[in-house]
Amino acid sequence: MIKQKNRIRSFALLLAGFWTIAIAISFAWLYHHEKNSVVEVARAEARASFGKDTLFRRWGNWHGGVYVAVTEATLPNPYLAHIPERDITTPSGKRLTLINPAYMMRQVFELADGRGDMIRGHITSLKPLRPENTPDAWEANALRQFENGVQEVSEVQKVGDHEHLRLMRPFMAEEGCLKCHGGQGYKVGDVRGGVSVSVSLENKEGYAKSAVGFGLLSYGMLWLFGMGLILAGAGILSRNLSILEQSEERYRTVADYTADWEYWQGLDGSFKYISPSCKEISDYSHDEFHDDPGLIERIVHPDDQAALDDHAHAAKKGESHSLDFRIVRRDGEVRWISHVCQKVYTSDGAENGIRASNRDITDRKKAEAAVKEQALLLENEVRERMVREVELEAKNAELERFTYTVSHDLKSPLITIKGFAGAVLKDIEAGKLSRLDSDVKRIMGAADKMAALLSDLLELSRIGRIMNPPSKIDLNLLAQEVLGQLSGPISQGGVEVVLQPGLPEVWGDAPRIAEVLQNLVENAVKYMGEQLQPLVEIGVREGEGEQVFWVRDNGMGIAEQYRETVFGLFNKLDPHSEGTGIGLALARRIVEFHDGRLWVESEGPGLGSTFCFTLGNKRPDAGDTAIKGGTT
Description:
Layout: H1 2-63, E1 66-69, E2 87-89, E3 95-99, H2 101-113, E4 120-124, H3 137-147, E5 153-159, E6 162-172, H4 178-181, E7 191-200, H5 202-256, E8 261-265, E9 271-274, H6 277-282, H7 286-291, H8 295-298, H9 305-316, E10 322-328, E11 334-345, E12 351-360, H10 362-430, H11 436-462, E13 471-474, H12 475-485, H13 487-493, E14 496-499, E15 505-508, H14 510-526, E16 535-542, E17 547-553, H15 583-593, E18 598-601, E19 609-613, E20 626-627
């Protein structure tokens, strides 16, 4: 603002200087004009006098001269002595003498010389007859110019104490002039000499000085008036600038010290104002944005550029809303900005650009992300707890059922063993050895049943704890190996097994997947019912983004209400059938451990069943062992 005041002061001084120079030039022109006017008036008077003298001389020549009385002042002209009747006497005795025009003009000039206010003249020649007609230096120079064709010579010279305008014109020889000068060789029309006229400038300069004095007073007053206007204007501008400075100081105090990045962008895209806080937020100074308006678009994160372009188009239509986007600082740091802008207008309603505000919300975004992450973690933890609770409840229920089943299933063979062991002792005491063989076999059967149950329980407990590393498995070879192991039961049941060719390779624990296939095939063979042509098929189909493996039979089928129950621990549809009721539960756990699913599809009792499963196809972290056979 100090710079602006200095500019006003400098402009006022410059304007005052121009005004002074203009007044001085105008006054100088007036002074010069008045001086020239004096000279021109004097020159006009001199020319008028010369014209009058010329007419007077011609009048005299026209009459051949005039006779005047002879006096002491007018003696006979000795240069006319050769003219007859130069001197005559009137009948009354009065003596008269002839005077020519030159004589008459000389006497007129002599009379004027006696009057200080009269125009004075002088007849002169480079070859004067009278010594009094000898030219001075100025007249001699003018006479020489006349011989070269110049018609008039004039100049202001100081004569005595005052300046005079001297004007001289040539004096041409006429017929009457030859009376005196014919002997000098002049002819009519020759430059015989000249008449110089001297006009005093004393009185005329007085008038000019009065006019110049009045002009000086007028121009002085005009100069003072102009200087007053300049000073008043400078004072008004300074006061307005001070008011503007105070207003701008209040504005800048609010705008420059805000933490937000404020700016005003004109219609041409240039910045009319940028708050200093842009440096803190973007690491670029406001001078850099002023010099390069396109910088503000280049620092926008590429992923947010399209959204900002849409926002800018909406703002140009007069729509105003906020937008959160990212910028990339000079040092490469990414920061979040909350941006809002709107169109601004002048007092007369004309559009005047865009007013925008940018707020750094990086910390808020980080806090929101942290809260969101904590909420997500909490949600996951709650979900996991709920899942664990459900699993725990399921495990507790399974454990309760397991405990009950184990106690029941183990108690049954134990009772059998205890009962027949007692019978064996009694038979031995009674000497009835014939029944001993069948009793011992019953005891051994009960022991085998207990061993099978304990083996299945042990196998079930190992799922998830003891697993082989995943490897690539050729399901064709694995299925053939499983079918080879089950060839005995398959043959005894008269079951036809069809293996779909081209089963894919999968990743997984080969021995465990072999157990799945074995349990599913055994289950299918075991529950054929009264089927006359028992059939078991093994194959694969495409599901929704996954491969579904299946084992299909045409046996007893499963009612809808039992399709999930069959996978429960110790659950058997036929309580009198062989087996422990653990096989399908074991198969499901193995499949789930492979991130897969196991379910059963059946159209109802007597219509067969299809057991389906998927595998997550886990790949090992290292190694790529292909299983050519079933297990390793």
